[in-house]
Amino acid sequence: MVDFVFSVLQTLTKTGLEEKFFKVVGHKNPLEKKKFHELTFFQRVWITKALCDWCMVRSLCIQLCKHGQEMNGLPLELFLF
């Protein structure tokens, strides 16, 4: 049990996923057996949220726009539409 808890904590730290993600989606990839539209509503929401979180953390453009900064002197409106 200790190894399992440690493994989950390592995964949470490494991926940035919240613990509730695994409670809703499970510890195995549900997309191996089902298509996205066949998953439960909450599974789809948590997978979509995780993808959005991942993109926000890794995308400099989105982060700059989120904080109201300009990119190369261009107005933010060019990047938001």
Query: What is the helix fraction of residues, given as a range?
Result: 55-70%
By secondary-structure content and strand pairing, the structural class works out as mainly alpha
Number of helices: 5
Shape: globular
Radius of gyration: 17 Å
Number of strands: 0
Q: Helix and strand succession?
A: HHHHH
What value does the average pLDDT take? 75
Q: What can be said about the biggest beta sheet?
A: none
Strand content: under 5%
Low-confidence stretches: none
When the domains are counted, the total is 1
Distance between the termini: 49 Å
Ordered list of secondary-structure elements with their pairings:
Blueprint: H1 2-15, H2 19-25, H3 41-58, H4 60-66, H5 77-80
What do these coordinates show?
This protein is an all-alpha fold. It has one domain (about 1-80). It contains five helices and no strands. The protein has helices at about 1-15, 20-25, 40-60, 60-65, 75-80.
